[in-house]
Amino acid sequence: MARPIVRILSRYIVRQHLPPLGYALAALTFAMLVNQIAKQFGNFVGKGLPWGVVFEVFALSIPFIVAMTLPMAVLVAVLYAFSHLAADNEITAMKASGVSVGRLLRPVVGGATFVGLIAFAWNDQVLPRSNHELRTLLMDIQRKKPTFQLKEQVINEVVSKQFFLRAARIDPAANTLTDVTIFDLQDPDRRRIIMADSGRMAFTPGGTDLYLTLRDGEVQEFKRSELEHFNRTFYIVNRIKVANVSNTFTPTGNDDYRGDREMTVCAMQEVVARARKDMARVRRDGFMAVSGELRRLVKVAPLPPLPEDTTPPRSSLYCEALGTLKRLVTPTPAEAQEVRPQARPQAAAGSFADARQAAMTAYDQRLRAARQRAAIYEVEIQKKLAISAACIIFALLGVPLAIRFPRGGVGLVIGTSLAVFSVYYVGLIGGEEFGDRLIVSPFLAMWAPNIIFLIVSIPLLWTVGRAGSSAHGGDWRDMKRTIFGWIPRTRNAELGSRNT
């Protein structure tokens, strides 16, 4: 008769987590999206983009935001659900009925594991594609140069390294300029400075060329080959055409380049495998170069070239399963013939010291470049795994905190969540920087925050799991005493007297 009760209890605990999980995920995602819109909306609208493009930019930002907020939502849901269970004395009643904290933890960990698997699939399949589309779209937006981007009192680069414009005042509605100065460097042999009291801008119907109509000004001109001559021309109306200034939004049809945040785990594993092959090739070439020089000095026949490892890298079970599924649903693409690298010719004899120094410098540079390329992609792989596993870590951390401090209420949920999120993501960003720079291993760089919070959660779980440790008390004052209880009482008394 115990098994149906246990199943009912598990379903009850899981149901208590679903509403706060959904609310927290929606609220956090919406808050971060609003922050993103507030920072970027003015720039996108100022470029005269279609509303559909602006909406697409923010829609493509949602997958990245969800990847960050999903572990946050798990922690908020666990804190909220168990603090309410503890405040209503339901935890005490369950423990009095013989239900241990470990038994209460099973459905929570099971649900967090399920959410973690969803987070990993999201980070590995959805997020790279959205990041690639977002990067391509942002690059297309940057290539668009409307008049709204011209800033007052600033030398604006209209055509890269060729045409610069400065205006004291710019009216984007009427496309008018006041107190204009133009630096024309399009002709390599001629330099022109054009000044005008006022002017007007207009684009061609295709939006590729810019026409400037300037009034009441002068042109100062000289040739670099004839520095003794200087021309100064006054005008009433001067019309200038600036070609190749695009004012139309042209989306990129196909962009094959992908960075580390735009690739799946399997694609990054292939890059890491190639980088490791490059490392082995660099070591082999360095050994052959040094041994060849030494054997040449002692007049011994050189060693035969070492064979290159041509075995393909072994894929992980996850990548093999995805590859099998992909082959079942998509046709097999044609494979190009692989071109084998030819043997490098032996270097000519020269100074042994110079050759050794040059060889060692090139060896170190090539080896470090290969190691860093592998580390960048390994860090990104470990980050996807660590963020997904954070769902389980946050569940293990949230349960004992909520049971120990049940009367903290919404303040406990918000305060603890903000503290944990801040520490976790600062550690994640710092670890990524250290891992990319080869200071620490990729695994330790990305998993250090998870390991730290797991170490913190273990004694907390042991404390609330002891017999007699029920959920009485537990407000903010109790939490403060728990955190700062290691301070000597005399010090606490001094602090209290100062406060009073």
Give me the strand/helix succession.
HHHHEEEEEEHHHHHHH
Helix content bin? 55-70%
**Beta-strand residue percentage:** 5-15%
Q: Could you name the ranges where pLDDT drops below 50 across 5 or more consecutive residues? A: 338-350, 468-473
- Give the termini distance in whole angstroms: 59 Å
Query: What's the rounded overall pLDDT mean?
Result: 80
Biggest sheet: strand arrangement: 1-2-3-4-5-6
Count of DSSP strands: 6
Number of H- or I-type helical stretches: 11
Structural class, please?
alpha+beta
Give the overall form.
flat
State the major sheet. Answer: 6 strands, antiparallel
- Tell me the radius of gyration: 33 Å
Number of domains: 3
3D structure, described in words:
- This protein is an alpha+beta fold and 500 residues long.
- It has three domains: 2-142 and 381-487, no CATH class; 150-242, no CATH class; 260-330 and 348-377, no CATH class.
- The protein contains eleven helices and six strands.
- The chain has a six-stranded antiparallel sheet with strand order 1-2-3-4-5-6, with no helix packed on it.
- α2 (51-87) crosses α8 (409-436) and α7 (352-404) runs parallel beside α9.
- The longest helix has 53 residues, at 352-404.
- The radius of gyration is 33 Å and the shape is flat.
- The two termini are 59 Å apart.
- Residues 338-350 and 468-473 have low confidence and may be disordered.
